Amino acid sequence: MMKSLFRPRTVPGKQVLDDHHALVASIERRGLLRGGLSLGALTMLTGCDVGRPEAVESALQSISSFNDGVQAFLFDPNKLAPTYPESMVLKPPTFNAYYDVADVKPIDGASWRLELAGLIADKKPWSGAQIATLPETDMIIRHVCVEGWDYIGQWSGVRLRTFLERVGADLKARYVVFQTADNYPSIIDMATALHPQTLLATKYAKEILPDLYGYPLRLRMATKLGYKNPKWITAIEVTNSYKPGYWEQKGFNFFGGI
Amino acid sequence: MSDAAIVDGDSIRLSRSRLRRLHPLPVRLMHWTNAVVMIVMITSGWGIYDDSVIIKGLHFSGTYRLGGWAPESLQWHFAGMWLLMLNGLAYLVYGFAVGRFRERLLPIRISDILHTIRDTLRLKFAHDDITIYNGVQKVLYIVAILAGVVQVVTGFAIWKPVQLSWLVSLFGGFQGARITHFAGMAILVGFLIVHVALALIVPRTIWAMLTGGPRLPKEQKP
Q1: Could you say which of A27, A243, A256, B208 would form a disulfide bridge with A228 (CB–CB 3.0 to 4.6 Å)?
Q2: What are the angstrom distances between the C-alpha of A72 and each of A52, B55, B76, B154?
Q3: Residue A118 is inside which H or E element, if any?
Q4: Distance of alpha carbon B70 from alpha carbon B93, whole angstroms
């Protein structure tokens, strides 16, 4: 599904890309070479305030994109993440966001709607009550944060695959993009979106999702790092164009698979 | 003394072409590549570590971290890992294939280790002949090589705890693998300090790793 392992972060328009394909390719290769050469020199400067020269920046970014391809290759769509007994579930779960817990703005579930966009046949918005009528799946999985901490949580909700099938999404598209009430745009690959342990979660530990953890709807994937899971979702878009999410824009890896 | 024949002035009757260096070119290239990539991995690892510490109160100052903050450190770490693995793999294949490991690192005799420790405690460093490694040296090199292997294995485990869940369970779970990865780093840093300190005490060894060092007879029965 990844066309090029060295796919850049932001993809220019197709026409532009085709017109300048050879030039773009040669520039990227040179960047990687330059980056490789200066890598040794830069290590000697660890600690000095060197910033990061553009060539190093783009070389590292290229390798990160290459690693996206490697991770997509390592991802087994049929491999299930380990699950755990209920006795191990952490209550309440660990709070995490790019802002402080005090800054969470609760959502009014009654007026909330889930908007749909992109390569989806039926784009009519969904209310919480409508989503509650969909088949519910339960999973007790490990949350692994990119920082290194982890906990075991119990999540329930409809499988994203079931939902996407229900609304007639193009399951051959490359990405599923999420918008959230806390301005945390997120993007995942379609293979992971279709994994059986990828849920649009509405409950934690069998209770309605608390405000702090994404009420009324959040994404929970057993096969991705924590930062890939948006909370307080307001819109879902199915698309073929790459739109970096909140952390991807800051240099975190797109695939973020575990 | 073993038959790791050193070539002193008298015994050279062999033509130069039949001699090989203590550190052949591939070893030197792999050594310095590894030196750079190890520093990249250790210092970028410290940058990642700092967001969720394993030992309370233990932080690595920004001065010693590669990457201004976590995403940059992660990028370095996940770029460096390829070079570390490829270079490490080449080193292992080379070491076994040409018999360098067997020749340089074996046999290890307890008496030799005790002798070296006794001498070291008396601040007696016997380094007249840098072509022969003492018992402690051999043990340290083997520990460092094994620690490098452990770092790659535990690195994979914490990178892919779901896809490689069987590997994670070998280390008693995700945190077990993470702590082992941290311990491996600590061992390598410890090795690095001793290794660099001793090399500085006997600068001839640094020169040898740059230029190849003394010539050894081509054929050598370990």
Answers
A1: A256
A2: 28, 33, 20, 20
A3: strand A113-118
A4: 34
For A20-79, the pLDDT digits (tens) are: 666 555 555 555 555 555 555 555 544 444 568 899 999 999 999 999 999 999 999 999
Angle at alpha carbon of residue B118, lines to B114 and B120, rounded to 5°:
115
Q: Are B22 and B172 in contact (CB under 8 A)?
A: no
∠ at Cα A47 (A45, A49), nearest 5°? 85
Enumerate the residues of chain A whose CB falls inside 8 A of the CB of residue B65. 46-47
pLDDT at A29: 54
A197 Cβ contact list (under 8 Å, min separation 6): A80, A81, A139, A141, A221, A222, A223
Distance of alpha carbon A101 from alpha carbon A107, whole angstroms: 15
- B149 is written with which tokens? 């292997």
ipTM of predicted assembly, 2 dp? 0.84
* Nearest-angstrom CA–CA distance, B104 and B27: 12
Partners of A258 on chain B (C-beta within 8 Å) are 159-163
* Residues A46, B83: Cα–Cα separation, whole Å: 18
Report CA-CA distances (Å) from A164 to A98, A141, A237, B169: 28, 22, 10, 34
Q: What is the least distance, in Å, from the CA of A57 to any CA of chain B?
A: 9
Each domain of chain A, given as residue ranges in start order, spans 14-74, 86-250
pLDDT in tens, B165-187: 999 999 999 999 999 999 999 99
* CATH 3.90.420.10 applies to domain A86-250: yes
Q: Given CA atoms B50, B55, B61, B66 in this order, what sign does their dihedral have?
A: negative
Domains of chain B: 9-217 (1.20.950.20)
